[in-house]
Amino acid sequence: MLYAVLCYAHEETVFAWSREEEASVMERLYAVQEPLAKAGKLGPVGRLMPTTTATTVRKGSQEPLVLDGPFAETKEVLLGFYTVDVETLDAAVAFAKELSAVNPGSSSYEIRPFHVFHAGYLKT
Q1: For residue 35, what are the domain limits?
Q2: What region holds the YCII-related domain (predicted)?
Q3: What pLDDT shows up at residue 69?
Q4: pLDDT band per the 50, 70, 90 thresholds, residue 58
Q5: Based on the structure, what is the number of domains in the chain?
Q6: Over the stretch 44-53, which tens digit does the pLDDT of each residue have?
């Protein structure tokens, strides 16, 4: 089954890392991802840019409103995601626990079953 593992953290912490800190964190995260990648069970992984770069389209009473920034203001924001193809929710939880163990600071991982409606046309 496909699962989306959504990564939430304090963006002011993550985007304040030095290049060395960033490289160290990414190296540890890649080590956690590697077994799933080698098994062909890791799908797209992405990091979202800061919420200051976001644009929100919000349904209005007449026409949709286009707003600068994220829709919700929270301390922890969605900073990225993983897609994993694992047999059980327990396996997805285990993956998220491993990510959490190597990711400094406070972060949380939300896991949801993922259904592909349309694979899209983008080629990577």
Answers
A1: 2-113
A2: 1-114
A3: 66
A4: confident
A5: 1
A6: 999 898 888 8
